[in-house]
Design brief:
There is one protein chain. The protein is α/β, with parallel strands linked by helices. Helix content is 40%, strand content 18%. The chain has one domain: Rossmann fold. The longest helix has 17 residues, at 171-187. The chain starts with a strand and ends with a helix.
Amino acid sequence: MRHVVLFHSVYGLRPAVRAAADRMRAAGHRVTTPDLYGATAADTVEEGFALLDKIGQDVVLDRARAALGDLPPETVLAGFSMGAGVAGAMLAERPHCAGLLLLHGTGGAPDAVRAGLPVQLHLADPDPYDAPDEVDEWEQAMTGAGADLTVFRYPAVGHLFTDPDLAEYAPDAAAAVWPRVLAFLTAC
């Protein structure tokens, strides 16, 4: 059983994030899903970016830090899209985390990676927000820094393909994600 903090995408704390947390809880994990916006979730990606601009990245990161405040050092850092970036940003401040789970986006700076850190990435192939050459460079840098990295690429899907409330939802790809995520959490 692991403690997991699951950060939401630029849309905000949507039902898909809560459902992912419930899947993890059903497998015996303790999951925290902080609302980094403190506002109603957006209906479109444009509204989500407008919310992020209004709130500010610094406030989002401060709220992420606050959410981690009472959690054990070995908490798994996880996130959807923008939340993957937030999880990666928190890695430098949580060097003893049990793992880094990235859904729909890369995250984590190689200089914050400890040798053997379990990292799992689930990404559309190609992804409109993470260019293939940038992902390849990120992969090389993370493994070069010592991360135990596993990357799953899902062809012909949209960016947030695990969110059933979005047009880009891809049920077959989403169904493949969750057993892999749960196996990762068990192994951390």
